[in-house]
Amino acid sequence: MKFPNDTVHCRITSPLGEIVLAASAKGLSGAWFEGQRHQVAPQNWPLAPQHPVLTRAAAQLTEYFGGQRRAFDVPLDLSAGTPFQQAVWRALLTIATGTTRSYKQVSSEIGQPAAVRAVAGAVGRNPLSIIVPCHRVLGSDGTLTGYAGGLPRKRALLQLEGATFSTDDQQGLL
Q1: pTM recorded for the entire structure
Q2: pLDDT tens digits for 32-43?
Q3: Which residue, among 40, 44, 43, 36, has the nearest Cα to 18 in the 3D structure?
Q4: 10 labelled catalytic
């Protein structure tokens, strides 16, 4: 992934661990749990905790974790992804809070029903955890499948949202 040269970042604390937020002039471009797979290292980006997009995203995430927000309206910059990845991430934005989709359903929604594995790869590389709700994508049988931030976090996010999913262990982190 290639992020714009004007990318800045900050770190916030959440009930599920520290989150790194990144923004460009176009909008929020990253939200990763610390240590998440595929996280981009922000050390070359200036620290800018007062950046308006970052402060807005931080406030909205705090409201989300507090149960006071179900949807995000911070401007997004998805330009770090390929056109295919961007199409998948836009499809994820249509999954309402408290609902889920399978990878196969997302593949069909973007008009590529045979691209289930490629969709799974794009979901896994989503740079905007929680905001672009990749945690709402489940296996075709409704079970929890991979999540770059870890399955306990995926489980906790779905529980926070009241989503139904199938698993033998439904213990969350929240």
Answers
A1: 0.90
A2: 998 888 777 777
A3: 36
A4: no
